[in-house]
Structures are given as C-alpha cells and as structure tokens.
Amino acid sequence: MPGARLSRAEIERRLERCRADYEAAKARVAEIGFLCEGTLLQLRTTCGNPNCRCAQPEGRHGPYWQLTWKEAGRTVTRVLSEEAAAHYREWTANRRRLEALLAEMRALSREAGEYVAAQAGFNFEGPRRSSRRRRSGR
Ligand SMILES: [Zn+2]
To answer: What is the 19 CA–ligand 1 centroid distance (Å)?
Structure first.
C-alpha cells in the first residue's frame, strides 16, 4: 500500500498526476479508428518446381498477406489482397494501441485507488493484474 506512508499533500499531488495521465490516455483512445482482431502475416512461398525462381530464397512467390484469428477456439485464416492488407494492418495496429492504452488506464486506476484509499483511511484491495499477463499472442 504505497499511499499509507505519504503525506496528505504528496498523496494529493500523485492522485492529480494519475488523473492527468488518465485523461491523456482517454484522449488517445478517442482518436483510435476501427479495430480488427487477429494477426497479419506476410508470406513468401515456393511452388516446388526446382527450376522456378522461387527455388532461391530471394525469388520466392509473393508476398501474400494472411490474416489469422481465433474463432470459437479454432484458428481461422484468410488470404488478403494488398489493398485489404493495408486496411487490416492499420486496424490491427489500432487494436494493439487500444489494448496498450487500456493496460495503462488499468494501472493508473489501480494506483489512484491506493491513493484514494489512503486518503479515506482504508486499504485498497482490488484485483491485482500482472503486467506480464498482457498480450495473449493475438
Ligand atoms: Zn515457383
């Protein structure tokens, strides 16, 4: 409980900083456009013909774009055109940005909760989240 040993003024100062950082994160969330689940992959393939240019690593066919995601516990894959891939690239990046901001907002809220609790004289006992638990590989 980091708030317990701090002066009232210091607690108020830190709480104010949490509020400001939280408002800044909210403003960045508001700027985020459409989201897409899944992982965008760029593939270069070989056709198996030993005389084809793709037999050389630099000569492989492609690039092809592929989006992979989980749906009802199964992995779904879609091959995308270059144009579609550009949209999905932006939208999956938006999703990662949003998730990072949400993690930041959770951490700030937790910190603020400890200061609010210290001001009011009770212990903040909300659920703890490991910062390593983020990014479930999607
Ligand atoms: Zn080939």
So the answer is: 57
**Is residue 20, in this structure, part of any structural domain at all?**
yes
pLDDT band, very low/low/confident/very high, at 13 (cuts 50, 70, 90): very high
Name the token pair of 76: 């779904």
The protein residues having their C-beta less than 5 angstroms from ligand 1 (an ion) are: 47, 52, 54
Any domain includes 136 = no
What pTM was computed for the model?
A: 0.73
Cα–Cα distance, 93 to 33 (Å, whole number):
10
CA of 56 to the centre of ligand 1 (A): 9
Q: Domain range spanning residue 47?
A: 8-128
Residues 28-86: tens digit of each pLDDT: 999 999 999 999 999 998 999 999 999 998 999 988 999 999 999 999 999 999 999 99
What is the CA 29 to chain-centroid distance, rounded?
12
Total domains in the chain come to 1
Please indicate, yes or no, if residue 3 is contained in any of the structural domains.
no
Would residue 133 count as lying in a domain? no
